[in-house]
Amino acid sequence: MTSQIICQHCDEPFDYTDAEREFRQERGLARPLLCPTCRQRDRQRRNGDLVNLYMRTDSFDPFLLGENTQAGSTSRNTQDIRTMYDATCAACGESTRVPFIPRNDRPVYCKDCFNARKGR
Ligand SMILES: [Zn+2]
Ligand SMILES: [Zn+2]
């Protein structure tokens, strides 16, 4: 026996077949509230919302962007800010900061001593 259901969206009656009722009962689903047309439209609208949500999230969250975009912005940032390393001046013993990793086999000088040696 095929019953009819009135769509809650467009008030149009639509067929609710025995086959569909069995299909839904097997999966523990309630009977449909919307006609097939409105159900499809509803699903498409929801998918559209999802796409919009992802688009919005993308523009705000850099972690969702492609690796290339992220790497590009990272290298641009590191060019502006040079990493400074703590070092001890080999001439006057004052602690100083140098833009390279201090090595034991090469003396590191503070700015004053470096300029003084260069000027000699
Ligand atoms: Zn409908
Ligand atoms: Zn020094």
Describe the structure in your own words:
With 120 residues, the chain is an alpha+beta fold. It has two domains: 3-65, no CATH class; 85-119, no CATH class. The protein has four helices and four strands. It has helices at 18-26, 36-60, 67-80, 111-119; strands spanning 3-6, 13-16, 85-88, 95-98. Strands 1-2 form a two-stranded antiparallel ribbon. It has a two-stranded antiparallel sheet with strand order 3-4. A hairpin with a 6-residue loop joins β1 (3-6) and β2 (13-16). It is rod-shaped and about 105 Å long. It starts with a strand and ends with a helix. Mean pLDDT is 80; it is low at 64-73. The site of one zinc ion has 8 residues, from α4.
In short:
The protein has 120 residues and is an alpha+beta fold.
Q: What are its keywords?
A:
binds zinc ion, rod-shaped, 2 domains, 120 residues
Number of helices: 4
Bound molecules: zinc ion
Strand content: 5-15%
Tally the structural domains. Answer: 2
User: What is the strand tally?
Assistant: 4
How many strands, which pairing sense, and closed or not: the largest β-sheet?
Answer: 2 strands, antiparallel
What class would the helix/strand composition place it in? Answer: alpha+beta
Q: What share of the residues lie within helices?
A: 40-55%
Contiguous low-pLDDT stretches (5 residues minimum) are 64-73
The 3D shape can be described as rod-shaped
Please report the distance between the alpha carbons of the first and last residues: 106 Å
Instruction: Write down the secondary-structure element order.
Output: EEHHHEEH
Rg of Cα set: 35 Å
Output the strand order for the largest sheet: 1-2
* Rounded average pLDDT: 80
